[in-house]
Structure formats: C-alpha cells, structure tokens
Amino acid sequence: MGTQRRAAPVRKPVVLSIAGSDSGGGAGIQADLKTMEAQGTFGTSVVTSVTAQNTLGVESTHPVPVSEIEAQIDAVRSDFDVRAAKTGMLGTREVLEAVTERTAEMSIPLVVDPVMVAASGDRLLESEAEAAYEDLIAEATLVTPNADEAGVLTDIEPEGEDTAREAGERLVELGADAALVKGGHVPGDRIRDVLAFAGDKETMIFEHPRVGTDATHGSGCTLSSAIAARLARGEELEEAVRTGMAFLERAVRYHHDVGTGPGPVHHLVEIRERASRHPTAEAVEEVVDSLIEMDARPLVPEVGLNVVGATPYAEATVETAAVEGRITRTRSGVRPNRGVRFGASSHVARFLLSAREHDSTLRFAANLRFDDDVESALSALESVVEIDRSKEPAPDEEGSTMGWAAGRAFERAEKTPSAVFDRGDVGKEAMTRLLASDSETLRNRLETVLGELHKGGADS
C-alpha cells in the first residue's frame, strides 16, 4: 500500500514588488523575485508595464491599465501577509498616483526605487510624472535614487559626497524616513553611497571599490529588492542597507555573461556561493590526502604547509576552506593538525583572494618552503615569479600585505603565475606559494616540485 508523505511547509516573510517586467530577465519584476528568494523571503508581484528589452536596450513599453494594477495590489493584499514592499518602474503619472494611494494604506516598510532611465539610457518614466514622485517618496521608508535620479528629484546634482548629502537631505525633507543616494554613476575608482536619515541621526557614508564592468543591468532593482527583503525579515534599516550593498557588490562582480550587451547582475550569487562550499572542502581534503600519500615532508616550511580552496564566488577568508592548524612534518611523513574547515587560513587565504582580484579563475593555493633546492625545482613549472618582501609596505590594514604581494607578482608575470616565491626578510620566513584554477592542477604542481626535489637529492 502506498502512503502519502507528510508535507513540511516553509514559512517565509512575504515581500511585494510593484514594478515593470523585463523580457531580458535581468531587471524589473524578474530581478526582484529572484533577489527576494535569494534573501530568504517569498516574492509577490504587481506588473506595472510590459517591456520588450534585452542587454542592448528597451525596444518598447506597454503600460498595464491602472485598474489592473490596482486589482493586482488588492489581490496580493487580500491573501498574503505582506511584510514589506518596493516600487520600481511606474512609468506614468496615473500609475504613480494609484500606487501612492494603495501603498499609503499599508503599514509596512516601503522601499522606493525611482526608476526613470534604464542603464542603456532609454527613458522609463514620462517627464510629466516626475513631480508625482514627491507624494510616493513621502510614504517611503527608504528611497534609493542613483545620482541622475536624485538630480531630477531634488534639482541637486550629486557630483561628490557634499552634494550627495544635500540631495539626500532634500529627499528626507520630502517625507522619506531615509534616502540612499547611490554613487555608482559618479566617476571614480571608489564608489561612495550616502545614506541620509530624517531627524537628528547622522548621515552615513558607505565607500567601496568600483567593480570594473559595465554589466550592471538590474543593479538598482536588485539592491532595492534586497533591502526590502531584509526589512521584511525584521532587520533595522541601517543593517538592511549594509547587507544589501554587500550582496549587490558580489552580484556585480560575478555578473552573468549573457546577451551581446552589458549583462545583468547575478541575483543568486550568494546561494551559489554557499552551494559550492561542500565540493570545495572535498577538493581541499583530496589534495591533503595526496600530500600524505606522497610523503611531502620536503615541501613543508617551518610555519607549516596549508592547502586553501576558494569557492567560485569567494570574497572573504570565511569563504575559503583550509586545514585548521596547517600540515606539519612528523617522523614518518606529514599530517594535518586538524580537519578542513572554512575560515581556517589567514595568510594563504588572503594571498589567494588577492590573486583572484587579478585572475578570478584562481581557486586553490598552497604554501611551501623556499630555499636553493626549491628554487631549482620550481624551474619545472611555468610562470614562476619572485617578489622582494623587503619592499613590502607596513600592514596598515587586514590583508594589505598579501594584496601587495599578489599585486607585485602579477605585475612581474607575463601571465597568471603558477608559483610565487620570496627570500624572506627580517622576521619573515622565505616562502613559496603555488596557485591553480582547480585542485587537480594544484596537486600536479605539488607532485612536480616534490619530484624535482627528490631528483636533486633533497631529503625529508
């Protein structure tokens, strides 16, 4: 006899997106729903306009009748316990007015992304509808304009931190609880986002390096959706903004390579990062096992040897797997002090992450001892680079020295180096670091160096 399985329902906070549809899948409702799911919420939607667009631009737009927009909002509200909402492309004054009236009835956090122009430059809001945004902004928990949109809404062009502050303050004067004036449209290697609050709370500045890409399609939709999802989960506004921006930075760096124009951001990148952790740890364990099997004592430096694996989307040491306590020499061979876990390495992991800034395909690294015998053995590898750590800057911040070391290595190499060594300095042990895009290549390079050492008569 067959029996039914017991259902195990999952309860998530519900978020509502009121925005346009993007046939290219990278922005609008499509971006919102993917982001909301990635942020641990359930996304519902109200489609305000149907667009024919792709990575090259917007070919046409078709507004949804106001009565149908209102019907969609009412349908969602009558059935779902909506905990937060966001607005995106609204298109016309009539739609803006209808959405403002409906959202004013909701006692929930509201994030307003004042979409006016697509990243391709195509206009997505009628010019006569701009003034109608003031009433919607007055209902907002947060309004998230880019520099161009902030200029239209406030008549202040944010060309730097001071003018961005002024624009943010003007927006909260219109009634918003807070305004995030995004700095991505302002030229420069670093982006400064300004978060202004109503009342006496001090304005906050979020500064981060710009990712060198034009593939930012859907970035505004993704950020506002991530913040709305975080608010629906009960986070305070400041933390929701901080978390949302960190999420977007990774989504931009690992954007999708689709279409012939600038591609969309990767809305599910955090989920993919977490999903890749187990196979990454397994790959590190396999390399460690091979080191034990080959008796790699001649490779182990005084500080111990470590093998590090980064997930394909790693941005921090906690997203790299390594041997806790490193691998040390024993009388009979080598052994790991403890098991493989994420966040177990600092030095080698930071070097690998810094190297990934120059070649994002790199995912594995190991540190070895360095002396004359190892230098001779390294000649069997391609692209071996020496760096001089006596010229290393003072470690004024976490990871700065490893960033410098990786940068120097890539400056000196014609292509991605397979090995980087230094002769040490006062208080710094001479060291070799191997780099590879996959664990098998790293294992082969370790075997090659060990084999050359054995040929040269190096003992354990």
Task: Tell me about this structure.
The chain is an alpha/beta fold and 460 residues long. It folds into 2 domains: 14-273, 3-Layer(aba) Sandwich (UDP-N-acetylmuramoyl-L-alanine:D-glutamate ligase), CATH 3.40.1190.20; 276-455, 3-Layer(aba) Sandwich (L-fuculose-1-phosphate Aldolase), CATH 3.40.225. The protein has 14 helices and 18 strands. Strands 14-11-10-15-18-17-16 form a 7-stranded mixed β-sheet, sandwiched between helices. Strands 3-2-1-4-5-6 form a 6-stranded mixed β-sheet, sandwiched between helices. Strands 7-8-9 form a 3-stranded antiparallel β-sheet. Helix 3 (93-104) links the parallel strand 4 and strand 5. The radius of gyration is 26 Å and the shape is elongated.
Summarize the SSE layout with pairings.
Layout: E1 14-22, H1 28-38, E2 42-54, E3 57-63, H2 66-79, E4 82-87, H3 93-104, E5 110-112, H4 133-137, E6 142-143, H5 147-154, H6 161-173, E7 178-181, E8 190-197, E9 204-209, H7 219-232, H8 237-253, H9 269-275, H10 277-293, E10 307-310, E11 320-323, E12 327-329, E13 334-336, E14 340-342, H11 347-356, E15 364-369, H12 372-377, E16 384-386, H13 400-412, E17 419-422, E18 431-436, H14 439-455
Parallel strand pairs: 1-2, 1-4, 4-5, 5-6, 16-17
Antiparallel strand pairs: 2-3, 7-8, 8-9, 10-11, 10-15, 11-14, 12-13, 15-18, 17-18
Helix pairs in contact: 1-7, 2-3, 5-6, 7-8, 10-14, 11-13
